[in-house]
Amino acid sequence: MKIIVIGGGIGGYTAAIKAAQVKADVILIEKGKLGGTCLNRGCIPTKAFLHDAHIIDAVHTSKALGIFDSVPNHNVQAIIDRKDAVVSRLRDGIASLCKANKIELIEDEASFIDEHSLLLKSRNEKITADIIIIATGSQPHRLPIEGAQSEEIWTSDDCFDTPIQPGEHVCLIGGGVIGVELATFYKSIGCNVTVIEAQKRILPSLDKDAANQLATMLKKQSVTILTNAVVDRIIPIHPYQVICHVNGIEHKISADRIIQSVGRKAVFSELKPENAHIETTKVIKVNEAYQTNIPHIYAIGDVNGQCWLAHGAAAQAKVAVEHIFHPDKPVHPLLIPSVVYSDPQIASIGLDENSAKEQNIEIKTGKFLVSANGKHVVEGKDRGFIKVITDTDNRILGATIFSHLASEMIPYLTQAIITKQTLESLEPVVFPHPTIVESLEDAMADVLGLAIHSFPKVR
């Protein structure tokens, strides 16, 4: 079987490798750099920046504790150089994996000729396949307002190569995941940061308690957060200006750099899906197995608009390839955790209190403050909480972790939900002490009012 994968991001290369593992003849087409948005302009560069920002914060904290006598100056260009080294190393690793799996890599732009054929633009060559997997990803959205289309006004794609120096004012339009992560980085390197969010609070899709507490912490760290703020226009001449209304009152914000972090949109128009009669709206329409309306053509990742997360794209890739080779096997819905790499991090999975209320699901909750966990205190990361949600039979339905290393803990609860675990079935699990992760034990026990390191619930 010959399979062509269009797009070499995490969804595309995962699909290619998975298909090659079952001995398919695989071609992977990428018009840019292997790794896609996640590796080159998103997840990895952001986390590299945040890692170095945490080091800077730790040095300042150490001075406050008397461990260091002074704080050395940091080098923003060195942060960018290290990011480049990390990205390059990982990109080379993907290329090596493709070679080891006998995947043919083609650096070119593809478009559909018909349902089985593609045109390679640079080569002016036609190639065909039995199966085609679209993994062309997304690009940053820009606001449909005056000034927002100017190249002087950045999106998240533009943040990773040009240094912004300490003391400069950065204005972030959008207080979602991308905006909050960038705000966390820029405030740590000494920038003045303003976040403008149209909703009532930052991170409006996440747990309200976690989002509000994070907003409070950012404000204490001198980040200005404007909510209920509608941006009217942008003046793309330095010093740049954002004109917005906050609760009906006009504000003018001047900044050295304006960054739009207002979501992403699927990229597929240059693919000419209409030539293959593929149904599209603003995204490519797919079923539960990520098939388009043309059964041998699949679409995974951001391009289908179902998840917008890198690990979601990789998970969809595995489902799609499994379906290609085992079409009669049942397809189970994916349970995909979300993470904000703020400080503390926010990770969530499954049901939250608001969605339970909307669905009239009766729930019980447990909440543990990480300030009562020894390892959190030792590491100076004692702000945050863990919230666990169960049904009336104590079966775990969801969780929010607002904590240091939340991203590393959330898979435990994801697995618990998938395997339909109850508080009782997990009670025999012994967590090592002292660890960050043992906070989960107290959070789960608190559902029943039995947490060891929490004060008794009022009965």
Structure commentary:
With 459 residues, the protein is of the alpha/beta class. It has three domains: 2-140 and 265-325, FAD/NAD(P)-binding domain; 154-262, 3-Layer(bba) Sandwich (FAD/NAD(P)-binding domain); 344-446, Enolase-like, domain 1 (2-Layer Sandwich), CATH 3.30.390.30. It has helices spanning 10-21, 36-41, 43-64, 76-100, 177-188, 208-220, 310-325, 353-358, 374-378, 406-418, 423-426, 439-446; strands at 2-6, 25-30, 104-107, 110-112, 117-120, 125-128, 131-134, 138-140, 154-155, 169-173, 192-196, 224-226, 229-235, 240-246, 249-255, 257-260, 264-266, 297-299, 338-340, 345-350, 364-369, 385-390, 396-403. Helix 1 (10-21) packs parallel to helix 7 (310-325), helix 3 packs across helix 4 (76-100) and helix 3 (43-64) crosses helix 5 (177-188). The longest helix is centred in the first third of the chain and has 25 residues, at 76-100. It starts with a strand and ends in a 13-residue tail after the last helix. The model has no long low-confidence stretch (mean pLDDT 96).
CATH class division of the largest domain: Alpha Beta
Q: Look at the structure and give the mean pLDDT.
A: 96
CATH level 4 superfamily of the largest domain: FAD/NAD(P)-binding domain
Low-confidence stretches: none
- Give the termini separation: 64 Å
Computed over alpha carbons, the radius of gyration is 24 Å
The helix fraction, in percent, is: 25-40%
Broad structural category = alpha/beta
The side-by-side strand order for the widest beta sheet comes to 3-2-1-7-18
Largest sheet: 5 strands, parallel
Choose one word for the global shape: globular
